[in-house]
Amino acid sequence: MIVLARPDARMRESYLAAHDEFVAIGEGHRDGDGVWVEEPDDSGFAGVAFTRAELETPAGFERFAARRRDQAREDAPRPGGHVPCTFFWVVDDGDPDTYLGSISVRHRLTPFLLELGGHVGYSVRPSARRRGVATAALRASFPVCTALGIDPALVTCDEDNLGSARVIETNGGVLEDVRRGKRRYWVATTAPDLG
């Protein structure tokens, strides 16, 4: 069964292998997890950087995982315009050390998130696609959304990403419109189990 786990250093090797899979198909930047450098800005955010060499060490990867966990806090340092975000890594409960993907729940919408990004973003490593992982992960995020007072949640995908559109629609997403190449769906987070 697909479950959501808080970012944890035990997934280091699997996470980095998944990152290499994303890069190999041209998807090196996705849903925040592919971003290892956050530049200083005028908001007082000092910036954060991780190198691949650092992430290959247990201590460096733990620092990275802690940064991901920390982003759920309202007072955590983050770039200007960014909102608190709860990050999860998607795993199979039968193999909890293998990273299958990520999902993030943004606690509120900014104008950019309302237009294009949405409340929930997700990605699944290429070798785990077409197995229902994204559908199950999105469904598993709904209790988190509900606990944060998000109902319905805005979930978006690229207009030509029919697989992601199916994931959202399978989870009850109702298409509002398409803006600047993004399909914008509203999904009830307190809906009955869709099986």
UniProtKB/TrEMBL annotation:
Keywords associated with the record: Transferase
Protein name in the entry: GNAT family N-acetyltransferase
- Tagged with keyword Transferase: yes
- Coiled coil regions, renumbered to chain: none
Q: SUPFAM superfamilies, alphabetically?
A: Acyl-CoA N-acyltransferases (Nat)
| N-acetyltransferase domain span | 45-192
Q: Which GO-annotated molecular functions does the record name?
A: acyltransferase activity, transferring groups other than amino-acyl groups
